[in-house]
């Protein structure tokens, strides 16, 4: 296994108390595989990614437990210096907002080239040639002419391609993309997503794709992990999950997606809001919003049950997953 996260816990100390932003997350990604992490705003997707990458703001955030095994090695046990060597070279991250991630006063070619100068000891000239090559790889037209331009001279979609090129530069084994297309308009979103999927295949990378858009993941992901209030509440191969969700929250998410094949059907959003993480409801955190909730849900935290009776490896943190699966 390329990446295996075990029982990860991250807390934030806030004025209102301790927020358990990540509360016992387990997940895994293999080489050449895409894991989509899905969930509403505030469910802990980015904090999980930051903890895995080793870029969590500490304080206020603090990893309070768990393991992040990368190629069998627990990254949480490494010294910061070793950690830095892993970042970029072995795992890289793509963020939502390319404009604030790129340096506005440095030509994009220099920023791309910097990766090779710093990590590979290349000359500036050789690094610039590499930058052009990378810009070609991510299909930026006229790369040779544009390598000296500044971030603001590129469109949002092209800037996101530059971010992808940066992440790819050292050919890492794993890329974590945190809402990589959210800031783009729909057609550009699809192009950037296709590019990512293609590069992932070509380089046989593991890809973790964080999104709150179910529509985006259907075509590109192998597995999905659905997060709610800092936990993974359902995990399954993408098509199995779409066909028959085994958690009422997933069902709610699926029902709230406009579907072309169900035109005219009323949109059913999930009622209510996700909980404040300093005061998560007892029992199943989803119970105040769950149409299937009953007494046991208000007292007993559901573990991630193994969903049996299907060929796929699936899990659901719902006491009544079977009922949900049966629709
Ligand atoms: N800097 C911070 N200070 C205090 N609490 C924080 C901080 N960053 C995150 N949190 C807590 O962690 C929770 C999870 O945040 P996270 O950014 O991981 O959500 P997310 O799932 O990525 O949401 P979004 O879809 O909006 O990006 C937040 O709800 C908040 O309680
Ligand atoms: S455990 Fe209960 S409240 Fe939680 S999702 Fe299942 S039915 Fe709903
Ligand atoms: Mg986020």
Automatic annotation (TrEMBL):
Entry annotated with the keyword rRNA-binding: no
InterPro entries: AAA+_ATPase, ABC_Ni/Peptide_Import, ABC_transporter-like_ATP-bd, ABC_transporter-like_CS, Oligopep_ABC_C, P-loop_NTPase
Keyword Phosphoprotein included in the entry's annotation: no
Main location: membrane
Keywords: ATP-binding, Cell membrane, Membrane, Nucleotide-binding, Transport
GO cellular component: plasma membrane
Recorded superkingdom: Bacteria
GO biological processes: peptide transport
Domain ABC transporter: 5-254
MF terms (GO), sorted A to Z: ATP binding; ATP hydrolysis activity
Location relative to the cell: Cell membrane
Annotated PROSITE patterns: ABC_TRANSPORTER_1, ABC_TRANSPORTER_2
PANTHER family in alphabetical order: DIPEPTIDE TRANSPORT ATP-BINDING PROTEIN DPPD, OLIGOPEPTIDE TRANSPORT ATP-BINDING PROTEIN APPD
Name this protein carries in UniProt: Peptide ABC transporter ATP-binding protein
Species assigned in the record: Streptomyces viridosporus (strain ATCC 14672 / DSM 40746 / JCM 4963 / KCTC 9882 / NRRL B-12104 / FH 1290) (Streptomyces ghanaensis)
